[in-house]
Write a structure and sequence with these properties.
The chain contains 9 helices and 11 strands. The protein is of the alpha+beta class and 225 residues long. It folds into 2 domains: 2-152, Jelly Rolls (Sandwich), CATH 2.60.120; 159-224, Arc Repressor Mutant, subunit A (Orthogonal Bundle), CATH 1.10.10.10. Strand 10 and strand 11 form a beta hairpin. The relative contact order is 0.14.
Amino acid sequence: MESELIKEVNAMEVLQKSRLFQGMSPEEINGVFGCMDAKEQCYEKGSFIVNQGDRMTQLYVVVKGMVHIIKSDYWGNQTIMSEAGPGEIFGEAYACAGAESQVAVRAVEDTAVYRLDVHKILTVCPSSCACHNRMITNLVSAMAQKNILLTEKIEHMSQRTTRKKLLSYLSAQAQKTGKVSFTIPFNRQELADYLSVDRSAMSAELSRLKEENILDYHKNYFIFR
């Protein structure tokens, strides 16, 4: 599965588009991977890449597929904190802190990732790669961007009703694409988990929004009227 999944994509093209490797040539990326002993790993849909409570020492770069970052409470209720697709990273905050992960990461598609040792990123390598400082700068930038996205999620969840949470999220997606029609990365249950609302109540609210001619939708495709 491992070789087949990687062969389906141009891994270097994905990596060059990643914020972590911004401004780096294929040769520089290969050099960094050599210094950091990067490892490729593939996961089948539904499998866990990180479990809540795992001690983190590595960050992950998605090359193909999609993952959800999930927080579970004492009773097993789950909230989707965020998602990560090709070129995006996860696990970096806990790895930088050397802490136990407070979230789990699950592959929602067959997924290929590269694992990088954070300690080797944050310390100068023996060969003193010229691109090492750039990668550290890129890592800080990537973490800042994720904080912005977290702030955006807090804005959605701070709305007082399911209707307002839905409209806040969907409005943000429309603004990001610059279009009245757009596709979201969640199915109904995943969207409910992301917004921390009851799925039945959310579905009923979507139906009302459709009846009021505010929006239309089919599965995860939405159109604002």
